[in-house]
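Structure ticket #2291
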Amino acid sequence: MKDKTKEIIGHKRQRNILERMLKREMFPQAVMFTGPEHVGKETIAMACARCLVAGKENLEIDTTKVNEMVDIIIIRPEKEEKRGVVKEKVITAKQIGNCKEKTGLHTYSGKKKVLIINDAHKMTRVAQNSLLKTVEEPGKNLVIIITTHEPDSVIETIHSRCQKMVFELVPEEEMVKIIGYSEKARTMSAGRPGAAMGIIQEQEIQKKYEEIRKEWKDLETKDMVYRFATAEKMAKNVPETIEKVQEWIRYAHDEWKESITSSGARKQVEVLCATVNTMTKTNANTRLVLEDMMINLWSAKREQKAEKQKN
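Resolution: structure written out below.
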């Protein structure tokens, strides 16, 4: 029986287009995959890279260690920990420069050399300008695949030189048909195969999403002392906190849908979205940003309760 966890989930239209391009040897030299996090952009980028290097046509998850293939170069943000605080670093011009040296070499064993840049929105402006020359004039055997869930953070000159492919949330019925997981996992993954597969393969991830939902519900009954203590704890791991607040946005949005006329429910969504935007696009003090979020959420929740009482 075929292992369903080794299949690419969803995106049939996009996969068909990519496989046609591979078959006809018309794969673009620069392509940008965009769409929400965990929908499969990086997985499909890796599958494309394997096909390009090996000269194959059918996209599938490779069971070999793709990272060890010399003709595939992967860049992604590195993580660092300082004083117990984990942060995701930017992609620097130096990293881009190092990869440009590698891409300039002849292919080792494959038909193509592939450069994958994951989370390309994390590139600094200098790094993006450094990459631009390679995107404008890639070597004959080089293919560049860029993945990002924040395409607006990538400079327009790179956009204009890349063929775009958008990956959307996978319909629930398609995910269930392929991997068949629990209702709880289905709700938590919200159309994101990467999150769903993680829940299937690692119970700890499911536990994490349960804890994130519980923390959101707990905020309803907790005082400001608890909220500020939570903000202090969250400030110690920025990538994890951004992911957590993004999950809270989904929960808050569900609450808003249930009472669409509630300005308090709407404000909770706005507060959370503004927090993610500040944390990802500015150098503001993380703890102060989260404390401000807690205050504004408390105010919005009080307004929502008052509206319910009136009704």
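Closing remark: Residues 187 and 224 are 30 Å apart (CA to CA).
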